[in-house]
Amino acid sequence: MTTPVRTVPDGERRAHLGARHALAEGVNDVEAAARAVVCLHAAEPSSVHLSAWARAGAGRGDVDRSLYDRRSLVEQRAMRRTVFAVPVDLLPAVRTSAAARVAAQQAGLLARGVVAGGLAEHPQDEP
Description:
6 helices; mainly alpha; AlkZ-like; Crosslink repair DNA glycosylase YcaQ family protein; 2 domains
């Protein structure tokens, strides 16, 4: 005998997501805000600050201290230059994602720019 499948109404689903993503009830700090969604994601760098503000009421200084002073979050660039602010202990899990491909693409772009700018005849030449 099978158990009937329970349908979750949109309102209930949204409430669960709001709680899980620390939007319905805030958290105390930037690190907890990042953990609520694995990492703070941004299409542009300022969006990391907005996401931290929405979840923890954190200001720009709070985010900057987490990234640059305490180094409890690491900023990682990925596909289409998307920014991820990742808790440092989760970095090994996400490091092997798209970042390596993006780094290779950016290195190729830089090498072509060096050649096009006349700084070297071949990308491996030192300027």
